[in-house]
Design goal:
Blueprint: H1 2-13, H2 16-38, H3 43-60, H4 62-77, H5 83-128, E1 131-135, H6 138-144, E2 150-153, E3 156-160, E4 162-165, E5 168-171, H7 178-188, E6 192-194, H8 201-204, H9 206-213, E7 219-223, H10 226-241, E8 247-249, H11 258-264, E9 268-272, H12 273-285, E10 299-303, H13 305-311, E11 316-322, H14 331-361, H15 365-378, H16 383-389, H17 394-410, H18 413-417, E12 422-425, E13 430-433, H19 435-441, H20 456-465, H21 471-504, E14 511-514, E15 517-520, H22 538-545, E16 554-561, H23 562-566, E17 571-576, H24 583-590, E18 594-596, E19 611-612, H25 616-632, E20 637-641, H26 644-656, E21 662-664, H27 672-677, E22 685-689, H28 702-707, E23 711-716, H29 722-725, E24 732-733
Parallel strand pairs: 6-17, 6-18, 7-9, 7-10, 8-9, 10-17, 19-24, 20-22, 20-23, 21-22, 23-24
Antiparallel strand pairs: 1-3, 2-3, 4-5, 11-16, 12-13, 14-15
Helix pairs in contact: 2-5, 2-7, 3-5, 4-5, 5-9, 7-9, 14-15, 14-21, 14-22, 15-17, 20-21, 21-22
């Protein structure tokens, strides 16, 4: 009902985004009018316009800046012991800095139309003229020594429109559309611009980046991976550098290096969200002021803002280091026992699943449900079990049985768990050894209390009360009890983590192996999460499971979430293709407004309904059959999957049918741009894991357009939420119940 009323009001008064766009249209007209006037200027005069804006900004902020300089001089003149007076003066500076930021925004709003017009005119000259020729400055001569697109001939510097970006030669051929001017204004205002895929968000970012960089306070452009950070910094750089601005990418340099410090000193800084966050943590750990690399957190623009500020917002960035005796662990020692235990449990689960199928087929849902529940408690990720649960009605039987054993504070649960060696609660991510499991692991004539923690409080109290034991002997025994408790606690923790590694984490789904290293795969983007490790010994357990070197244990030195990091910026903005559905969260957490920018041309894509299949086999057969049909029509096909494993299963099926294809997942991330760039050719089949913001255009060839355009399919194992927000529409999927 409320939705119906909202739609009715929108028809009468227009949507919020309609009203936002309507407010900005007069500014678009003003920018285009100034842009038309710039056409008659020489290249030197165009460059001079930038210096005029910088002078205007400096003039309007001169009084505040002079006051701040004066207070800093007072602080320098005070003796070291005048701490309170210095603190009071620093507080005055902080208040003035906040006032300066407010005044700066007013000035930038005044000069925005001219600044945007300058960027647009520069882009037009690169595209239509092919070069810009100006009187050579010292900066031009410096750049000419390192950049092939800048040539110095006599007293003149010639800026050509061809340069290298991410190892590929690019020819500048873009001029900002009106909708991109709107997007730039939205970003400058510290809002989120929702722009459809292919609408040129990278080009849009050049407008507010140029404008805000003129303030000299630094602009940080945040991307989701280092390839995009490096590519965008090189792609857009000439547009800024022609006007005297400096540009660099922090991902090109090692942490704490002079190169990274120089990059942060530039007017416009590109980088990945993680590196910005980690550099902040490193700065907080620095001992000397000269070791700091980051400056003021003034203005940040975040690409794929929904992925960074919502999906990954609560994921902590952690800097860790070795702990004392970090190389002493029992993972390799306990692995054979755990591997044997898991294999025995797998046999039990297989037997219970077989019994459940027979009993349920005979109509005995009670006994069959118990057998099914035991299989589920034993190994919930057992693939034959998952397949059986996808059959009609089976999930309902499991749910009823589970509800029975969960009632009365799990009073009957020991009855269900009694024959198992260990139990797994998938919802709480907890693994527990049963009495049978403990017996199985201590069957080699060992101490029966090998995996049993003593009640240390009771043992110590009894020892304290024992008057027959001398005090010196009591101290020795107490130390032995505490030591025994610590050893057993660590042993039990090791076994639990190994059980999780074997039963809850699958290779090519949650992680992959690269050069003998366990690399975590981001389930949202399908990318390898470089430098990340599972905490609490889980990563070491997986390393032991996979027979690779078990790295030393670590401890946390510094940590911060992306959410807390980005809220430190004076002004924060973002762009993505999918933000409106999360508008409430953006406003509640970051006070960020979302504005939906219309497309430059009407959308011709057809979004079709999902197709749901009973079994995985039927689904994949349908996928391969349709791919075969589309390839025969000469259409490019993009197939999305939810894991590395599924992408490779689908690849094997296509190979059997002799259908040429490319696979893009965490194992081939280095060829990402190359594979995606080829995806628009006729009959090309590209299989990819869920990837937010790959950032490389899929350009359709005339032959592909003639054949009907590209066809996108999503082969999903189960329903999932964020994919629709990301613009990935599931076509083939099998729900898990």
């Amino acid at each position: 009902m409320l939705d119906f009323i909202a739609k009715g009001l929108a028809k009468i008064f227009g949507t919020k985004s309609d009203r936002d766009i309507k407010e900005l249209l007069p500014k678009v007209a003003e920018i285009n009018q100034i842009f038309s006037g710039l056409a008659g200027l020489s290249d030197d005069q165009l460059r001079g316009k930038t210096q005029e804006i910088r002078a205007q900004i400096a003039a309007q902020l001169k009084d505040i800046d002079d006051t701040i300089v004066g207070i800093k001089a007072q602080i320098e003149a005070l003796p070291a012991e005048e701490v309170q007076q210095k603190d009071s003066l620093f507080n005055q500076i902080d208040a003035l800095e906040k006032e300066r930021d407010k005044e700066l925004e007013k000035v930038l709003d005044d000069v925005m139309p001219t600044a945007f017009a300058i960027v647009k005119e520069t882009a037009r000259r690169f595209k239509e003229v092919g070069k810009l020729q100006v009187k050579a400055s010292s900066r031009d001569r410096e750049l000419a020594a390192t950049k092939a697109n800048v040539k110095v001939e006599g007293d003149d510097a010639i800026w050509y429109n061809t340069w290298i970006a991410a190892g590929n030669q690019v020819v500048w051929d873009m001029v900002h559309y009106d909708v991109q001017l709107i997007g730039g204004m939205v970003l400058h205002k510290g809002k989120i611009a929702e722009m459809a895929t292919g609408e040129g968000k990278t080009l849009v970012s050049t407008l507010p980046a140029f404008l805000n960089a003129l303030s000299g306070r630094g602009v940080h452009l945040v991307t989701v991976n280092d390839y995009l950070a490096k590519r965008d910094s090189e792609w857009n750089a000439p547009l800024f550098e022609f006007h005297g601005l400096t540009v660099d990418c922090i991902d090109k340099y090692q942490p704490n290096s002079p190169g990274r410090k120089r990059a942060y000193a530039c007017d416009i800084v590109y980088g990945t969200n993680n590196e910005f966050g980690f550099d902040y943590l490193r700065d907080n750990m620095a001992r000397e002021a000269e070791d700091l690399v980051q400056g003021k957190h003034h203005f940040a623009m975040v690409d794929e803002v929904d992925s960074v500020l919502i999906d990954d917002a609560r994921t902590p960035l952690i800097i860790s280091g070795p702990v004392p005796r970090g190389d002493v662990h029992e993972f390799d020692q306990m692995k054979p026992r755990v591997a044997t235990l898991v294999e025995e449990q797998r046999k039990l689960v297989q037997g219970y699943l077989t019994s459940a199928k027979k009993l349920i087929a005979d109509g005995n849902d009670k006994e069959g449900g118990l057998a099914l529940f035991r299989a589920y408690r034993g190994i919930p990720k057992y693939k034959p079990l998952i397949k059986y649960l996808s059959e009609p009605g089976v999930r309902v039987i499991l749910q009823k049985t589970e509800n029975y054993y969960l009632q009365d504070n799990k009073r009957h649960m020991p009855e269900a768990d009694e024959p198992l060696l260990f139990t797994i609660d998938e919802k709480t991510n907890v693994v527990d050894l049963t009495d049978r499991g403990i017996e199985a692991m201590t069957s080699k004539n060992e101490d029966p209390t090998f995996f049993i923690l003593p009640d240390i409080g009771v043992v110590l109290a009894d020892l304290e009360k024992d008057s027959t034991v001398p005090e010196t002997e009591k101290l020795i025994r107490k130390e032995e009890v505490i030591k025994d408790y610590g050893v057993k606690a660590q042993r039990i923790h090791t076994v639990n983590q190994l059980l999780k590694a074997y039963c809850m984490f699958e290779r090519d789904t949650e992680y992959i192996l690269v050069d003998g290293k366990v690399k975590i795969v981001d389930e949202q983007t399908g990318r390898v999460m470089e430098g990340r490790r599972y905490s609490d010994g889980l990563h070491q357990a997986i390393e032991a499971k996979e027979n690779v070197k078990v790295e030393d244990a670590t401890q946390t030195y510094a940590t911060i979430t992306l959410q807390n990091y980005f809220r430190m910026y004076h002004k924060l903005a973002g762009m993505t293709g999918t933000a409106e559905t999360e508008a409430g969260e953006f406003w509640e957490i970051y006070k960020l407004d979302v504005v939906v920018i219309p497309t430059n041309k009407p959308i011709i894509r057809q979004d079709r309904e999902d197709k749901v299949y009973k079994t995985v086999r039927e689904k994949f057969n349908a996928v391969t059959d349709e791919i075969n049909e589309l390839v025969a029509q000469g259409r490019p096909v993009l197939v999305g999957t939810t894991s590395v494993e599924i992408s490779e299963v689908l690849s094997r099926m296509l190979t059997l049918k002799k259908i040429p294809h490319q696979v893009l997942n965490a194992k081939q991330h280095a060829r990402e741009a190359e594979i995606v760039a080829e995806a628009g050719k006729p009959g090309t089949v590209t299989i990819a894991t869920n990837m937010a913001g790959r950032g490389t255009d899929i350009k359709l060839t005339p032959e592909s357009r003639k054949a009907g355009g590209a066809s996108c399919r999503q082969a999903a194992e189960r329903p999932f939420g964020s994919s629709r927000r990301r613009g990935i529409f599931p076509i083939f999927r099998v729900p898990r119940g």
